[in-house]
Amino acid sequence: MLIMLRANGRIIMKVAIYARVSSERQDIDLSISAQLKALRQYASRDSHTVVKEYIDEAESGRSIDRPGFKQMIVAARQKPAPFEAILVWKLSRFARNREDSIIYKSLLRKQGIQVISINEPVEDTPSGRLLEGIIEVIDEFYSANLSQDVLRGMRENAGRGFCNGGRAPYGYIRVKVQDGATSRTKLEPDPKTAPIVQRIFRECLGGKGLRAIARGLNADALASSTGKKWGTTSIEKIVHNEAYTGALVWGKRPRTQGARNRFAPLRTEDAWGPLIDQTVFAQVQAKLAARAPRAVHPREVDSPYLLSGIMRCGKCGAAMVGHRGGYRYHYYMCGNARRKGREVCPSPILRKDKVEGFVINRIKDCILTEDNLEELVRLTNEELAQTCAEEREKLEILQPQIAEADSRLGKLYDALETGEFKGGELASRIQALFQKKEELQQVKADAEEALRYQAVDMADPLVVRDYVDDLRGLLERSSIIEQRGFLKSFVDRIEVGDSEVNMYYTIPMPPSSLPEETVGVIPFVHHG
Questions:
Q1: Residue 224 pLDDT more than 80?
Q2: In what order do the strands lie in the sheet with 350-351?
């Protein structure tokens, strides 16, 4: 077990440092080096010993599949643990997904390791952890909103026939085109591979099977997109891909981690030169459908029971499941009792409307309170002030960089006019410098726009109060899936006993230090 010493009333610890950025654009906002500098200064100021630094570059906080993060967790599981605390710039650097944050902080806490945000000081007390939980929920909310903002930009890009990234479909190549001051990407037929795609569609329309088509391509030594031999999977992807008709279909894939696209799929015809006629494509789809074995997939129906997956029987541990039977109302009852009979587990049957109403009201009354709201306003204003300062600092850095790029371009143009260098020698340098200047100007414009938004964004307590009201409304007016996801941010599980219902919170509820609440079961029980 590690020993903590005290100096000037402060606890001296062995600490690890964790720094993360999501992308190159966010690296400009708050670079790894800037995070590390601040974290090292914090550790030095409090006489902590930094035993290890873990870094994740271009890694999203919404996933825990990050190399540096995983290395840190593996190290933390050692006995004894090599450090007693993990320093992060902000809690959002540790994780933006509330569920992941709860799991890994709980694991670390069991190892005697705390996560310290140097810009969001939170006491390691029940009330402090409650506040930390609210901060993390809001971070996740902002992260989801940011994702939607990015999606809007990608949707607009796709609507104009431009590519949003990724590899070009086999048969096409990606080319840069100028769109005003911005360079964007379009697809053009690849002279080498486009004829192969057309051959695949032609043979499929002629009645050849996918396996036979693949064998023919391999016999003719024609390279696939991976450089390996052709297989039926590769052929199948091609013959079902509408991109070969010149159509760009964006937004078909469902979002990951249970979230759904808020936008309907977008289709743009004639986004690029087609390799296959629309009529031929439709005929190929009809042939494939006629040959495909018929399969009936079960319809996926969302459970209308809010506490599904959260509430369990305290007697046998089985999940409490929805039940109606011949009753007028809907109920929750033990899954074992429903399947095997009440003699197996005679736990109470609870009225759905009453027990769900109780849980919702407890979340609203205990978490979304005026006291928490006041603290939230203070933290929000501090966050906005810090962000505005960072944006202004960024503008101060960008302005001389843009001026320097202008100056260097001017010198290159002068050299070109005087004939000091040949045009061919200077063209690539001018193009690279011009592109860099455009990128800097775009970042500058983004920073200026961010400052305009932040000047009015959530700084007023009334605005924050409206936001909290929205969160309360989420528990009443949104879909069951959204409500259940919100509840899981605060409720770990609910156990139903003979005479009481126990709610176990993911964070302790003030003023009690116990992370649970017990109420009598009588108000929720079905009698009869």
A1: yes
A2: 320-323, 331-334, 350-351
For the chain, counts of helices (H) and of strands (E) = 16, 17
- What is the rounded CA–CA span in Å between residue 163 and residue 165? 6
Picking from 226, 210, 225, 223, the residue whose alpha carbon sits closest to that of residue 170 is: 225
| Residues 138 and 96 sit within 8 Å (Cβ to Cβ) | no
The DSSP annotation for 302-325 comes to --S-TTTTTEEETTT-PBEEEE-T
User: How many other C-beta atoms can be found within 10 angstroms of the C-beta atom of residue 73?
Assistant: 17
Question: Pick from 236, 259, 291: which residue ends a domain?
Answer: 291
For residue 504, list its beta bridge partners. 493, 516
Task: Tell me phi and psi for residue 22, to 5 degrees.
Answer: -90, -30
In the block, residue with structure tokens 């996918």: 210
Dihedral (C-alpha) 381, 387, 391, 392: value to the nearest 10 degrees?
50
In this structure, the number of other CB atoms found within 10 A of the CB of residue 5 comes to: 9
- Check whether residue 94 and residue 19 sit in a common domain: yes
pLDDT tens digits for range 74-132: 899 888 889 999 999 887 777 756 556 666 777 788 788 988 888 876 555 554 555 55
Comparing CA positions, the residue from 88, 80, 95, 79 lying closest to residue 114 is: 88
In 3-state terms, the chain is what percent helix, strand and coil (to 5)? 50, 15, 35
Check which CATH number belongs to the domain holding 87 and give it: 3.40.50.1390
CB 508 within 8 A of CB 124: no
Let me know: does 426 contact 415? Beta carbons within 8 Å.
Answer: yes
Tell me the average pLDDT of the chain: 72
Distance, C-alpha 223 to centroid of its chain: 36
User: Is 137 contained in some domain?
Assistant: no
Amino acid 152 reads R
Helix (H, G, I), strand (E, B) or coil at 472: helix
Global model pTM greater than 0.85: no
361 and 477 share one domain: yes
Over residues 170-183, the pLDDT tens digits come to: 988 877 766 666 66
Helices of type H across 321-460: 335-340, 352-366, 370-418, 423-454
Total domains in the chain come to 4
Domain span at residue 336? 311-367+472-524
Residues listed for the chain: 528
User: Within a domain: residue 133?
Assistant: no
Query: 281: which 2 tokens?
Result: 């494509």
Rounded to an integer, what is the distance from CA 305 to the centroid of its chain?
Answer: 26
Same domain? 316 vs 376? no
Residue 147 lies in a domain: no
Look-up: residue for tokens 């290159």? Answer: 412
DSSP E strands in 78-171: the ranges are 85-88, 114-117
